[in-house]
Design brief:
Rossmann fold; 14 strands; single chain; 19% strand; 7-stranded mixed sheet; 2 domains; 5-stranded parallel sheet; alpha/beta; elongated
Length: 411
């Protein structure tokens, strides 16, 4: 999955609030600002929906996703990318809750102007959105869902089967990310770990994938524990782990819980790195974990943007809009997701009388998309997964996340 509230890849994004278009203030983040400019009189309208947490603990990620989609739509409208059509963004707040996400998807599916959706952030919310958008033939491109079952079904490891042909994603998956972390820890001489996850789809799947690779390559999991996402005190779990003397703790979950877990580990005398996935990759994690977080590690999807050909182009364009939230871990992936939809719309809307009439054609067109995006090649395999599987390990150094290694899963 999962963010970061500050974007530390060689660029500083100003955090001020401005209006993006004539549709109103960006201060209202729970409804959909259009991201529309350059529309001509008589143009038909097509909407790209966004479903993400726009309020609550994970809103930094969600708002970064929303604004990145708005940037892509603004640029498409300004360039006249789809003659005769004006694109708009319709953003819905799912609060990182599956039932709220389902309601958001239902609202978007009922809007005849909606032809595609970027989202969701959380794998658990995607599970509720997929069955709503699929019957409506609305393409869904996630910038952040990392659970493999969303594209390849519950038996993805042994018998992969694509369940929803309208579903795609621009990020890589946990069955790549977890093993990548396992291999890295073993390379660093870490042979024993304890695992903890938050019982959610993302966290549990990440730990399962990590554990399988770590033990297969000779590592030992000395303890396997869980927490509740609403907990604030983790002393019982840490008491069960500490006596096992792990060299690291691998955590499956997101930064609002991961940061305090790290802080409480160190305060209780368990002075080993906390390691996790992309859900931790947020400067807020370092703030919550405190000064003892030095040496903690995380993996995140893709290479650092400042190493990619189009990275500066995206960050400069985003900064110029002066959005009220930085793009975060998934802004670039949301931008690429939106541009994948826009690329499909160039075909599907060409002779369409309405956005609704172009929905199935859009699904078909996106399956054939192949473009150079901010995050690398944007193209999808037979399951709808991204063909790009680059990952980066980051470690906390001098109070911030620093790059440790970028590469691909070996073997």
């Amino acid at each position: 999955m999962p963010s970061r509230t500050a974007f530390r890849l060689g660029v500083t994004v100003l955090a001020t609030t401005l209006a993006l278009s004539a549709c109103g203030s960006r201060g209202d983040n729970t409804g959909g600002g259009s991201g529309q400019t350059g529309g001509g009189a008589g143009n038909k309208t097509a909407k790209i929906g966004v479903i993400a947490p726009l309020s609550g603990d994970l809103s930094a990620m969600g708002l970064g996703i929303q604004h990145s989609v708005e940037l892509a739509v603004k640029q498409a409208n300004d360039s006249g990318a789809i003659p005769g059509w004006t694109l708009e963004v319709e953003a819905k707040d799912d609060e990182a809750k599956p039932e709220t996400a389902k309601n958001a998807a239902t609202a978007l599916a009922g809007d005849s102007d909606v032809v595609g959706v970027v989202g969701t952030l959380n794998s658990s919310t995607a599970q509720n959105v997929q069955p709503v958008l699929a019957p409506a033939n609305i393409v869904m491109v996630s910038p952040a869902n990392t659970n493999p079952s969303l594209t390849r079904g519950a038996e993805f490891a042994d018998s992969p089967k694509r369940t929803y042909k309208n579903y795609f994603r621009t990020c890589t998956t946990d069955d790549v990310q977890g093993p990548f972390a396992a291999q890295y820890l073993l390379e660093q001489g870490i042979k024993t770990v304890a695992t903890v996850h938050d019982k959610k789809t993302y966290g549990q799947g990440l730990v399962d994938a990590f554990t399988k690779e770590f033990t297969a390559k000779g590592g030992t999991v000395v303890a396997a524990e869980t927490i509740n996402p609403d907990d604030a005190n983790y002393q019982n779990v840490l008491a069960a782990i500490s006596g096992k003397k792990p060299q690291a703790v691998y955590y499956g979950g997101e930064y609002p819980q991961g940061g305090p877990l790290s802080q409480q580990m160190k305060a209780g005398g368990l002075n080993v790195p906390l390691v996790g996935g992309d859900g931790l990759y947020n400067p807020k994690y370092v703030e919550l974990a405190g000064g003892t977080s030095t040496g903690d590690m995380t993996t995140s999807v893709g290479a650092p943007l400042d190493t990619l050909a189009k990275g500066k182009e995206f960050t400069d364009g985003y900064s110029a809009q002066k959005y009220d939230q930085e793009p975060g871990a998934y802004g670039a992936y949301a931008y690429d997701a939106a541009n994948a939809i826009i690329e499909g719309l160039k075909t599907s809307l060409k002779d369409a009388e309405s956005a609704e009439a172009a929905r199935q054609a859009t699904v078909d067109a996106i399956g054939k998309v192949d473009l150079e995006g901010v995050t690398g090649q944007v193209a999808f395999d037979e399951y709808g997964d991204s063909k790009t599987r680059i990952l980066t390990v980051y470690t906390v150094k001098d109070g911030a996340w620093a790059v440790a290694k970028t590469g691909e899963l070996q073997g």
